[in-house]
Amino acid sequence: MISLRRFSFSNSNLASRLNYVNPFGQYLYFFKRYFVSSCNSNLVNGNKLPYFCFMAPKGHKPCSEISSNGLQRGFEQLTLCSFYSTKPICRSYRRRVSKRLKASNKPILDEAQFQRALSQLLPRFTAEELANVMAQQDDPLVCLELFNWASQQPRFKHDASTYHIAVKKLGAAEMYEEMDDVVNQVLAISHMGTEALFNTIIYFFTEARKLTRAINIYKHMKNSRNLACRPSIRTYNTLFAAFLSRGNNSYINHVYMDTVRGLFRQMVNDGIEPDIFSLNSMVKGYVLSLHVNDALRIFHQMGVVYNCVPNSFTYDYLIHGLCAQGRTNNAIELCNQMKSKSFIPSGKSYNSLVNALALSGDVEEAIKYLWEMIEQRRPVDTITYRTVLDEVCRSGRIEDAMKLLKQFQEKDLVDGHLYRKLLHVLEDDFGHSTDNNKFR
To answer: Can you give the three-state secondary structure of the chain, one letter per residue?
Structure first.
């Protein structure tokens, strides 16, 4: 039996090392300490490890850890919960650990730099003078300390410029908790703020993925009696960009698209004329949420309703969306219309078009756009090469596929590694039904 009387419970750093709130965590901690110390002592004496060192969970190898990195380092990586469970650590636990790490790694204020900045202020400084000194500081902690110090000075009040500089410095440094405190001070004053200040706040909240907080700031702007704080086209474009930056997850984009649609409708109702970025955001949102017909409706309304000319991004979004639904004829029509306006399709549009044509059985047209894509110096995906070669082979033209692959190699379009990879794919997929000599 292992006696626990030899251990002291007076360790002040115990709570931070345990990550437990229940008393049983103390026994696990002391068991681990005894286990490591006894193993180390036995190793020093040249003896074998005690029997209970092999009680580690499945997947951990204590002996290999001893020989390579040392026993102490290996077992420090084990969490206490791993002694009785091999399940992945829950998200809430990871968040608590991350919060503790952030709290322990907080930067320390440079007092000397703060005093130098303080010496630049006159005895009776104005808000404009304070904003200039804060803007010159590279350290966001010094800037925040200046802001808080000025708040305690008699007969001084912050204005929009000092709040704006503080939000910019803290947001750029990703000190969002401190920035949130400054924002709450702004919201507490009904007449305080400008459109530029609130747009900056919304931008950094979207960067921190605090979308609900950003929407609340937008509602505060909309309900403000100060006309200088009302939302502008920049406000809406910042929100559009934030809600449509969730990648290629069509479900998430479908959920967010309702909010984007409501914001766009509110913007039009308030008399704010949308620009090309706003309209492209709507087109992109509809394409990402698989509502291509709605995207085409916005596209046809651009010149008629909104007096705005589509650009290359508009066509790229639409071509990609149409190809994703297999509507290759409409995609080719838009591609030709795009080229007639001296726009060159992007690599994503070309790749989508070539893949869609090849999968629909129109291999010759796919090869035509593939060579056109190469002439326009657009990057070709490995998937595009493979899709075209696979579809050529499926049509029974294996020799043509090999000739095409060799042309890619001769023109330095594929390197040796990619050439061998594509060749092995053709051999695995079609080598069993034909003569393997065709692949040599």
So the answer is: CCCCCCCCCCCCCHHHHHCCCCCHHHHHHHHHHHHHHHHHHHHHCCCCCCHHHHHCCCCCCHHHHHHHCCHHHHHHCCCHHHHCCCCCCCHHHHHHHHHHHHHHCCCCCCHHHHHHHHHCCCCCCCHHHHHHHHHCCCCHHHHHHHHHHHHCCCCCCCCHHHHHHHHHHHHHCCCHHHHHHHHHHHHHCCCCCCHHHHHHHHHHHHHCCCHHHHHHHHHHHHHCCCHHHCCCHHHHHHHHHHHCCCCCCHHHHHHHHHHHHHHHHHHHHCCCCCCHHHHHHHHHHHHHCCCHHHHHHHHHHCCCCCCCCCCHHHHHHHHHHHHHCCCHHHHHHHHHHHHHCCCCCCHHHHHHHHHHHHHCCCHHHHHHHHHHHHHCCCCCCHHHHHHHHHHHHHCCCHHHHHHHHHHHHHCCCCCHHHHHHHHHHHHHHHHHHCCHHHHC
- Per-residue burial over 188-227, b = 16 or more CB atoms within 10 Å of its CB, e = otherwise: eeeebbbbebbbbbbbbbbebebbebbbebbebbeebeee
Give which of 196, 168, 203, 199 is closest to 182, Cα–Cα. 168
Alpha carbon of 271 to those of 247, 264, 306: distances in Å? 31, 11, 12
Give just the sign of the alpha carbon dihedral 62, 64, 67, 73: negative
Residue with tokens 């291509």: 292
CB 139 within 8 A of CB 110: yes
Mean pLDDT (the chain) is 79
pTM comes to 0.70
**Angle in degrees, 0-180, between the axes of helices 160-172 and 176-188, rounded to the nearest 10:** 160
Predicted pLDDT at 40: 47
User: Would you tell me how many other CB atoms lie within 10 Å of the CB of residue 353?
Assistant: 27
CA–CA separation, 233 vs 273, rounded Å?
A: 8
Tell me how far CA of residue 289 lies from CA of 212, 246, 301, 333, in angstroms: 21, 11, 20, 22
Quick: pLDDT tens for 315-370: 999 999 999 999 999 999 999 999 999 999 999 999 999 999 999 988 999 999 99
Which pair of tokens denotes residue 119? 């010496």
The pLDDT tens digits of the residues spanning 44-101 come to 444 444 444 444 444 444 444 444 444 444 444 444 444 445 667 788 888 888 877 7
Residue type present at position 156:
F
